[in-house]
Write a structure and sequence with these properties.
By secondary structure, the chain is mainly α. 57% of the residues lie in helices and 0% in strands. The chain contains 21 helices and no strands. The chain is globular, with a radius of gyration of 25 Å.
Length: 562
Amino acid sequence: MTRLDVVDFPFRYHGSSSLHHLFIAVDGVRGFRDTEFLSRVKASMRREFWIPPIWDVTSPTPVDIHPLVMWPHPALEDLLVNAYFDCDTHLSLLDQYTFREKLSSGLAIRDRRFSAVCWLVFANASRFVDESTTQYLGDPRSSGWAYFLAAKEAMADAQRNRPAWLPETPDEVSLQVTVLTCTWLHGTVSPHIVWLIAGSALRASQELGLHIRDHSSSSPSNSAEQYALATRRAFWCLYHLDINHCTSSGRRPVFSEGDFDFDPPLELYGSVTTSAFVQKLLLDRILGQALDKLYGVQPGRNKDVEALLSGTDHWLFALPTFLRLPSEGTVGAQSASDHPVNIGNASLAIHYHYVRLLIRRPLLPRHRKAPLEQEEALSLSLIECFAIADVLDGLLHWHCSGAQVPITSEHMYPISTTFATLHLGLEYRHDSAAVPASFGDTGDSLRDQIAERENIVTRMNTCVMALSEIERRWHYAGKLTDWVSEHMRSLCERFADGFRADLHTKWSTSTQQSSETDMGHGDVRQHYQTLGSEGLNGSADASAVDFDRIFEQLFGVNLAHM
C-alpha cells in the first residue's frame, strides 16, 4: 500500500488463506516476480476507490450529517424497505413480517435503538435504489451514507446514560445493529474492519449462551420465543461474516468446531432465501474446519482435504430439491417471479464451489515443476472455477435482461479467488512462449490447448466484469477490479502472440470445407466467421483478418495496445 501511495492501516496481517498468498503462488509458477506490477497498478488505478472519500466512516474528515439527514418520506421508506428484503438477500437477519409490523406501529419514534436498526436498513437498501436524496453530492457510491451515520448517532444517544467504561450487554437490537453495520462497512473502502466488529460481537454473544444448544433466554419481553429466534439469527449472521472475512484475510475465526454443539436452526426455514442461508451456514461449518486444519501454522495433510471434500459431497446429497444448484444454461433464464429462487440458488452454488476451491488450495502448485498430485488438484480446482464463472455469467446476462443486480458484496472474494486460480492454471499449463510453429497445424492436441486457453481467459474476463458490476454499489470492489484488471492486461501482454496464433488457427480451421463433426468446433466456426467478416467483406483470407479486434470483441482486451 505504501508503494501505491495509499494511506492504510499499518501492520495488516495476511494469513495463508488470503489472496496475497495465492498471487505469490502465481509468481512461483510463472518462474519470476513481476517487479513492475505495482508501478503499473499505481499508474492505472482509480484513486477514488482507494482513498477513503469524505463520507466514508474511515475518512479523516467525515461529513457532518446533522443538518442533512431526514427520515425518509413514506413512499421512499416503503421503497427502501422493499429493496432491502428483495435485494440484500445474502443474510437472513430480520424477519420481514416482524420488522414491518414494528415499523408501522411507530416503534422507531419511541425507541431510539430500534430507530438505529431502521436507519441501517435504509442505509444498506440505498445501494439498490437510484435515489439522489440518499447520496452525497449525487455520487452513487455514497448511497446511504447519511442513514448510516444517523444510526450511529441514534445508538450513541440511546446509550448516553450508560457509563463509558461499562460495555453493553448484548441483546436482540445490539446484535442486529452490529450485523447491519458489518454489511454496510463491507461496501466501504476498508471492509477489513468487519473482522474486528463481527469478532467482538461474537465473543459478546457468549454472554447470552448463543453458542450452546440449551441456553435460557433472558428476554425482557413476553415474546421470549421470538426474542430467542431473533438473537439466534443475528448470531449465525455474525458467524457467517466472521468465517468468510477470516478466509479472505487469513486469520483465525472466533469459534472453532468444538466451541458450539448445534447446527444452524431449522426454524429459519420458511422461504427460499432463509433456507439458502441455512445451507450456507452448513458449508461455513466445513469452511471453518478447513481454516483450522489446512490453513493453520501447522497445515494439515491430504487426508484432511479428502475428509473435508467428502463433507461437501454429503452436503450436496442432502440439499433440498428446491435449492439444487442451477445449471449453466438456466441460471439467467428464469422469469422475474423466480427472482428469489434464482438469487438464492445461484449464490448457494457459488458458495459451494468456493468452499471446495479453498479446500483444494493448499495442494495447488507453487512452482513450475509440481508433483502429479498437485497437477491433479489444479485440474479439479479449475473445474470449480469454471462452475463459479458460469454461474456469474448467467447472473450477468440475467441483469442485462433488466433484472435487479443479483451479485452482491459477498461474492467479491469468491470472484477474486476464482480469477487468481484461473491465472495460476493458465501460467502453469500454458507457457507464453509456446506459440504454434505452424499456423496450419490443427492437430487434436493443438485444438485442445486452444480450447482450454480460451475457456480460461473467457472466465477470467467474466470475473473482471462481475467485479465491475459489484463496484457500482460496493466501494471496495473497485480496488479488486483495478488489481485483477492489471493482472489481465499483464497476462494478455505476455500471451499476445499465443492468443493471435490461437485465433489464426481457429480462423483457418473454420474456413476449411469439412464437417462440424470432424472439426469439433461447431458453433465456434460460425461465430469466428461472423466476427471476422465485419468490415472485411467476408474475406476468408486469414492474413486479412484483424485478430486483435476479434480478441477485443471476445474478451474485452485490445492486444494491439499491449
